[in-house]
Task: inverse folding
């Protein structure tokens, strides 16, 4: 053996070998967790875990494949992070409600600058008491009574959408309807959230508001910073020191400036603006006095965040800071824009493919709103079949294919041990397409949600907005925005398929939308 040959090995090669070995052990350190707790799942690869399968096959096919092979409980690895996916409805009810104190928080990869607001104050990222305080403070802002105040702004945005489609309908030309529902939703968010009036036909594309808002939607799980945080979470402290963030700093600075100006104007002229910013300024007072609108009675049980006993709000009476309001406003459009626009586009897509459902909905709209009468918050919520169409659309394609909760302490649920620190995945798409729960799940059938059929549903078999205290705070707003658009559009147009109306490609990530092909339909003027 040539001992001298070993001595001649360059020091950099030794260091590189040691670093690679250390990272290998670091990236695979959690790979034995599921075997220890008796959960089956696909074998993970070093570094990437099971992410390569999602990138290769797409989110829907991969998750459905795991579900068919391993059953209602299986374990996967996203990089080095173990995720226990649970599709058992009774177990999930305990995770989201009964054992909520053990599963209060969502997983965060780290934002790279935790001490720099508003990045550290998004409601989706907040934990424990900080989340409870913000959630309790903001919940009254999204009540039915508050939505009534903004119905005029939403109607104006709907009318712009109807007008924009006139030329397309006259020519009966195919359109990617997602582009138009996106313009409508952006207009709603700008007006109701920031008091900014966007012209959906022109200024929408040139406005600095839109330009900066779109920068938030460019964030992808496969972008470098996201992959670094996912595959190398140990570098998060370094990113914090360097002030490197997932969020575009120029866009955050723009909205901070816009918000400061808007808040100053609303504080000088209280009561002048009927938008969320003004409501958030007074939200703390409303939350303390437990004001509940009459039309919200009996409809707030899932919004209750004190579900498992009392807690002490050390900030009670202090309201929200400007940074927290900015974080709430950014969350408002970053979480609401894409999901609402896409769901509305999907509803029109399914109605185009199912003309019998479209005809039934049009008949109900014409009967409820004779002679093209404009809808309002009260009247649009009195159309059962409209609700059924939207609900079935969200069953077919929920905006988020999977949600998650982090287990804070060792927990036993229905005989399954869940160790502290593990992420529990709530597979929304799997549940919505489980043939044992939904017969013929790939068929669009709004009748599944008729009043009589809903009575037999398990509360967790339809969860596009989540369930329990940490459900989507804006779900009532999203439903209202979608309902208003569908009524006004179907009063004027009908939607039919064309050669570009192909099956939707829902992509590789857990956000389910066809960004590759678009959502194509033909718009025709109703006779």
Result:
């Amino acid at each position: 053996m040539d001992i001298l040959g070993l001595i001649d090995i360059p020091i950099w090669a030794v260091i590189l070998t040691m670093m690679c070995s250390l990272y290998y052990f670091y990236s695979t350190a959690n790979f034995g967790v599921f075997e220890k707790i008796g959960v089956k799942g696909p074998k993970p690869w070093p570094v990437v875990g099971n992410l390569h399968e999602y990138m290769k096959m797409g989110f829907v096919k991969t998750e459905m494949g795991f579900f068919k092979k391993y059953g209602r409980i299986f374990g996967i690895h996203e990089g080095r992070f173990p995720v226990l996916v649970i599709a058992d409805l009774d177990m999930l009810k305990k995770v989201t409600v009964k054992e909520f104190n053990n599963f209060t928080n969502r997983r965060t990869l780290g934002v790279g600058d935790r001490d720099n607001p508003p990045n550290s104050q998004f409601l989706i990222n907040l934990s424990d008491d900080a989340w409870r305080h913000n959630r309790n403070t903001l919940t009254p802002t999204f009540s039915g009574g508050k939505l009534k105040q903004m119905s005029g702004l939403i109607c104006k945005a709907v009318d712009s959408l109807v007008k924009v489609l006139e030329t397309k309908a006259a020519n009966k030309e195919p359109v990617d309807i997602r582009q138009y529902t996106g313009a409508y939703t952006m207009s709603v968010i700008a007006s109701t959230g920031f008091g900014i009036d966007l012209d959906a036909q022109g200024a929408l594309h040139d406005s600095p508001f839109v330009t900066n808002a779109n920068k938030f939607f460019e964030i992808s799980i496969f972008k470098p910073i996201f992959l670094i945080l996912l595959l190398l979470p140990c570098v998060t402290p370094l990113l914090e020191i360097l002030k490197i963030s997932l969020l575009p700093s120029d866009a955050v600075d723009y909205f901070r400036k816009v918000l400061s100006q808007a808040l100053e104007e609303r504080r000088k002229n209280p009561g002048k603006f009927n938008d969320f910013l003004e409501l958030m300024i007074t939200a703390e007072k409303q939350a303390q006095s437990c004001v509940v609108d009459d039309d919200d009675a009996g409809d707030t049980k899932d919004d209750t965040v004190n579900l498992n006993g009392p807690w002490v709000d050390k900030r009670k009476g202090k309201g929200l800071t400007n940074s927290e309001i900015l974080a709430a406003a950014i969350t408002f459009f970053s979480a609401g824009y894409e999901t609402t626009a896409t769901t509305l586009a999907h509803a029109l897509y399914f109605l185009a493919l199912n003309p019998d459902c479209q005809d039934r909905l049009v008949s109900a709209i014409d009967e409820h709103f004779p002679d093209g009468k404009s809808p309002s918050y009260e009247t649009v919520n009195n159309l059962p079949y409209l609700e059924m169409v939207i609900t079935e659309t969200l069953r077919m394609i929920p905006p988020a294919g999977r949600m998650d909760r982090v287990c804070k302490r060792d927990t036993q649920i229905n005989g399954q041990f869940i160790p502290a620190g593990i992420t529990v995945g709530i597979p929304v798409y799997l549940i919505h397409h489980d043939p044992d729960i939904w017969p013929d799940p790939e068929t669009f059938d709004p009748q599944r949600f008729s009043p009589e059929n809903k009575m037999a549903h398990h509360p967790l078999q339809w969860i596009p907005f989540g369930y329990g205290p940490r459900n989507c705070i804006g779900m009532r707003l999203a439903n209202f925005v979608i309902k208003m658009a569908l009524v006004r559009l179907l009063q004027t147009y009908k939607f039919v398929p064309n050669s570009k109306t192909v099956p939707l490609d829902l992509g590789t990530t857990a956000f389910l939308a066809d960004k590759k092909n678009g959502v194509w339909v033909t718009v025709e003027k109703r006779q």
Remarks:
- Confidence is low (pLDDT under 50) at residues 111-115, 284-313.
- Residues 15 and 21 are 10 Å apart (CA to CA).
- The beta strands are 73-78, 81-86, 174-176, 403-406, 411-413, 416-418, 423-426, 493-496, 520-525.
